[in-house]
């Protein structure tokens, strides 16, 4: 037992005696656990935002047809955001089970309040003369939307996507309610056990993940909208 203890000494900054917030030993010793939680957090975030965008585009297209439809769509997307996750996730469980799908779908619904509004604003920012010129050149509604309106609306859409993505990174932590919270699982267990190093590490990785994804979206916007760079 003595030899074993000497071969594997207790970490200097976390354990039964010490409990520090910033601990390099924790990052080294729990690297596999942190990597797995971060990968799950990332996959849930990306899945939720992608699903939210897929739902937001047709809703925004529908909403711009009339003020009445706009009111219904915006009320629905905003209303969904007011439902606490503690209530929303259990409502989804009978249909999706206790799986990552429950979290992805719930977070996608939450993202609609931002994505629908920004997509609608982006579509309405396209000048009328551009639409009229495209129609005059034989563009039908679908081709007009896909080749003219959505590309020109991209700066506004991606601005909303950035906000929704950063928000979803934070909200993914509540997925711990159904055991699929990524870094949120580490946060929850860290708070329960007063494990300061784990709380700090999970929180730090959440912040870094949000910053990295936001930076990636900035690059994507610059690549997809070269005309906006030319004018700046």
List the SSEs and their pairings.
Layout: H1 2-7, H2 24-29, H3 31-63, H4 67-81, H5 85-96, H6 100-124, H7 128-136, H8 141-171, H9 183-193, H10 196-224, H11 226-230
Helix pairs in contact: 3-4, 3-6, 3-8, 3-9, 4-6, 5-6, 6-8, 7-8, 8-10, 9-10
Quick structural summary:
By secondary structure, the chain is mainly α.
Structure commentary:
The chain has one domain: Orthogonal Bundle (MetI-like fold). Helices cover 78% and strands 0% of the residues. It is built from 11 helices and no strands. The protein starts with a helix and ends with a helix.
Helix content: over 70%
CATH class category label:
Mainly Alpha
Structural class: mainly alpha
Number of discrete helical segments? 11
Shape category: elongated
Unreliable runs, pLDDT <50, ≥5 residues?
A: 1-7
Instruction: Round the Cα radius of gyration to an integer and report it.
Output: 23 Å
Average residue-wise pLDDT: 88
The CATH topology annotation reads as MetI-like fold
Number of strands: 0
Distance between the termini: 68 Å
Q: What is the domain total for the residues?
A: 1
What pattern of helices and strands is seen along the backbone? Answer: HHHHHHHHHHH
Largest beta sheet, briefly? none
What would CATH call the homologous superfamily? MetI-like
Instruction: Please name the CATH architecture.
Output: Orthogonal Bundle
Strand content: under 5%
């Amino acid at each position: 037992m003595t030899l074993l203890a000497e071969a594997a000494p207790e970490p200097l900054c976390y354990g039964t005696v010490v409990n520090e917030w910033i601990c390099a030993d924790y990052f080294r010793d729990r690297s596999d656990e942190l990597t797995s939680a971060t990968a799950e957090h990332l996959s849930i975030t990306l899945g939720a935002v992608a699903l939210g965008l897929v739902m937001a585009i047709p809703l925004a297209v529908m909403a711009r047809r009339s003020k009445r439809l706009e009111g219904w769509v915006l009320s629905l997307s905003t209303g969904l955001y007011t439902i606490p996750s503690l209530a929303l996730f259990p409502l989804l469980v009978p249909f999706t089970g206790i799986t990552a799908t429950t979290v992805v779908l719930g977070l996608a619904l939450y993202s609609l309040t931002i994505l629908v509004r920004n997509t609608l604003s982006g579509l309405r920012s396209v000048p009328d003369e551009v639409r009229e010129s495209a129609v005059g050149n034989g563009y039908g509604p679908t081709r007009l939307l896909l080749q003219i309106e959505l590309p020109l609306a991209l700066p506004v859409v991606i601005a909303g996507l950035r906000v929704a993505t950063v928000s979803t990174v934070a909200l993914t932590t509540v997925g711990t309610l159904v055991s699929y919270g990524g870094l949120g699982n580490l946060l929850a267990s860290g708070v329960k056990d007063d494990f300061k190093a784990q709380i700090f590490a999970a929180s730090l990785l959440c912040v870094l993940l949000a910053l990295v994804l936001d930076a990636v979206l900035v690059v994507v916007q610059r690549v997809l909208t070269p005309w906006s760079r030319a004018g700046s």
